[in-house]
Amino acid sequence: MSKLTKISVALVCIVQSVSAQITPDQAVQAALKQNPTLQAAILEVQGKKYLEKASFNLPNPEINAESPTGEFYALGVLQSFEFPTVYKRQKQLAIAETSLALATQKVSENEIRFAVRNLYLDAQTAQAQLKNFTNQDSLYQLVLSTARRQFEAGEIDQLQKTLVENEVAQIRQNQLSAEREYRSALALLSMFTGIPGTNTILPLQPDTSNLLMKVDYSSNPLIAFEKQAVVIADKQLALQKSKALPNFTVGYLNQGAIGTPLDYRFRAAIGIPIWRGQFRSTEQAALVYKEAAQKRVTAQVQLANMEQERLDADLVNNLNQLRYYQQEALPRSAYLITTARRMRDEGQIDYIVFLRTLEEAYIIQRDYTDQVRALNAAIMRANFLAGK
């Protein structure tokens, strides 16, 4: 195979590998398309839109037959209806309930995005830790081979060889455990997104795109939901007030003789709302519900403010920790591994010190992975709070 052909094959493999990678946004979009909770919320919105058409709900007309004089039966029809304002308020309430259903849908979408991104971050973290343990295992296998040769040559004793074997076996178990966690995280991500065979994700990298972002509470889905609940309560209060207005009945019924003129066969009635106590009670209940909804908005804003304060502190701390690891800890880890290997090859340190030094160096790398995860998790919480 020519050099050019090898390069072409390598480039094709790279392109295929990159194209097969699933990004967090792709995972989120896939989950939003097939999540049953969101589908239920969408159906509820559709149901509320149908109910808007039923807001003008006249009672069924009453068709009756009476014998007003005892000599013949007269057919009649009666139609009752509320004060026109009632139907207007019912329409407004139905529209507001549709908006509340839409707000519920937005809450579901935001929660699904947050859940998928958490699953994706878990998979990225597990992948990074698996890579850490795999690198450590590769080095320890070389160390084990060297230790066995040195033991056979009489350069080290049984204790040092056994110590090396024990450490290598422990790292191998850690690697296998990390691999199981990685596969489990991928399976959960695939289950939640509906993408079969999810096995290629982007490597874990620190997300510094939205550091110290301030939450725009107008886009917070939970606050928007509670605000819409206030609108619902306000419309319900207005509807209850309208129901205290008179209602009407019109109809046709001949109460006289068969030859009664047509003008005198019609009937009209007005319902006088004299029982003010029951109307007053429903209005007071609606007013209380409105005040309760307003309190829930205040409480939700307070929770968002508290979360924002925690996020500010967490982001500053995580960013400082990340910079420390990138500028100091990781270079120190690489130095410890390189130096320890050189000193062990030169016989300046025994395997006890050597293995302890390697473990400290790899712990730094695993801790760095945890710091990256903590920073990205804080960014995700900020996006969740902002409804993004």
Strand arrangement, major sheet:
1-2-3-4
Q: List the secondary-structure elements in sequence, H or E.
A: HHHEEHHHEEHH
Class by alpha and beta content: alpha+beta
Number of domains: 1
- Counted by DSSP, the helix tally is 8
Distance between the termini: 50 Å
Strand portion: 5-15%
- The whole-number mean of residue pLDDT values reads 83
Query: Would you identify the CATH architecture?
Result: Up-down Bundle
Please tell me what the overall shape is: rod-shaped
CATH topology: Outer membrane efflux proteins (OEP)
Q: Superfamily at the CATH H level?
A: Outer membrane efflux proteins (OEP)
**Gyration radius over CA:** 37 Å
Number of strands: 4
Q: List low-confidence stretches.
A: 1-19
Report on this model:
The chain has a single domain, classed as Outer membrane efflux proteins (OEP) (Up-down Bundle). The chain has 8 helices and 4 strands. Strands 1-2-3-4 form a 4-stranded antiparallel beta sheet, with no helix packed on it. A hairpin with a 7-residue loop joins strand 1 and strand 2. Helix 7 runs antiparallel to helix 8. The protein is rod-shaped, with a radius of gyration of 37 Å. The two termini are 50 Å apart. The N terminus is likely disordered.
